[in-house]
């Protein structure tokens, strides 16, 4: 499926990378969205700011994710989505891709 779609990065920009992890920072102001992206590695999310964020999927479905600063999430690889901030507050996260065991 990912070959049919134009995919971007999983976060806004890479802030650190070594042979074990790749760390992204993503900031979405109200009304902004990320690139459509595919998670090819397991990853951790650390929420820095925001109250919720939506995940829009290529099949037209949306998942609304309530979040709060300080929360951490482990998410297995495999998702393809666009992160969308439909709230009236800024959303910020650190996303840590785990390279070990992700193949």
Write the layout of secondary structure elements.
Blueprint (H helix, E strand, L loop, with lengths): L12 E5 L3 E8 L8 E2 L4 E7 L2 E5 L5 E5 L5 E4 L4 E5 L6 E8 L5
Report what the structure shows.
Helix content is 0%, strand content 48%. With 103 residues, the protein is mainly beta. The chain has one domain: Sandwich (Jelly Rolls), CATH 2.60.120.10. It has a five-stranded antiparallel beta sheet, with no helix packed on it. It has a four-stranded antiparallel beta sheet with strand order 3-8-5-6, with no helix packed on it. The chain starts with 12 loop residues before the first strand and ends in a 5-residue tail after the last strand. The model has no long low-confidence stretch (mean pLDDT 91).
Characteristic terms for this protein:
Jelly Rolls, four-stranded antiparallel beta sheet, five-stranded antiparallel beta sheet, mainly beta, single chain
What's this entry about, in short?
With 103 residues, this protein is mostly beta strands. The chain contains no helices and 9 strands. The protein has one domain (13-98): Jelly Rolls, CATH 2.60.120.
